Amino acid sequence: MSKLPRENQFLDLSDYGRPIANVIAKSLQNTAFTPIHVTFLFVASGLIAVFCILNEYYWATAFFLVLKSILDAADGELARLKNTPSYTGRYLDSISDMLLNLLILMTIWYSTDGSIAYTILAFLGLQLQGTLYNYYYVILRNQHHGDTTSRVFENETPIALKGERQIHVNILFRIYSLLYGAFDKIIYNMDKKAVEGTRMPNWFMTAVSTFGLGFQLLLIGTMLVMDLKQYIVPFFIGYSIFILIFIAIRKLLN
């Protein structure tokens, strides 16, 4: 089940796990499993990947990073199948993603004896890349009446949806704002008029989807398997230049 109407769907390179995620979600549709249970599973998969990096089990690392991406898609699919959208799940998902990203990069830093300053810079680049992708994707979904639990502007606590408690939404929104607020503001200030744009063609969104977390994790897993772990941090620092390139293209299109 896509977050966009069929006529507005694009090839999302970060969403390669969606077909398997659909199968997982459908198998859990009539069970007691909730989307949050699946979120906990993807956190477990990410932690196992970290353990594998520390022990240099790189094929296993790649497997669990891809599994994490699949389960990351499956929790949202299950929420749509059960018709139980929630801000609790949306914020828990994003918070878990960021903390796992930081842990994965810090583990790579530890195992390569690299520069902590460069690792932090790579983490910031990784997050800004993902923020730009999510910014454009959420705008597109709002324009075409797609999934709306993610908002273009996360500047106030939302009202809890049916089946969730407001106190949980309040707490998770505060944590989300603390972790993501600065990244959201940076990207918004770099491209304020994106919300007024009328053109985000499929080819453009496909290119920007290389900033999606699923694709980022696939790259990390591939580079580990190819014994290129020392280049992971420099790569994500350098790839951040495409933030400026994609914003420039978006502005030219409109």
In a few lines, what is going on in this structure?
The longest helix is centred in the middle third of the chain and has 28 residues. The chain contains ten helices and no strands.
How many E strands? Answer: 0
Q: What shape does the CA trace take? A: globular
What portion of residues belong to β-strands?
under 5%
> Which stretches of 5+ consecutive residues score pLDDT under 50?
none
Q: What Rg, in angstroms, do the CA atoms define?
A: 18 Å
Summarize the amount of helix as a percent range.
55-70%
* Spatial separation of the terminal alpha carbons: 29 Å
| CATH-defined architecture | Up-down Bundle
Secondary-structure element order, as H and E?
HHHHHHHHHH
Please describe the biggest sheet, giving its number of strands, its sense, and whether it closes into a barrel. none
Pfam family, one: CDP-OH_P_transf
Transmembrane segments: 32-51, 116-136, 203-225, 231-249
Protein name: CDP-alcohol phosphatidyltransferase family protein
Family: Belongs to the CDP-alcohol phosphatidyltransferase class-I family.
Q: What does this entry look like structurally?
A:
With 254 residues, the chain is an all-alpha fold. Helix content is 69%, strand content 0%. It contains 10 helices and no strands. The longest helix has 28 residues, at 116-143. It is globular and about 45 Å long.
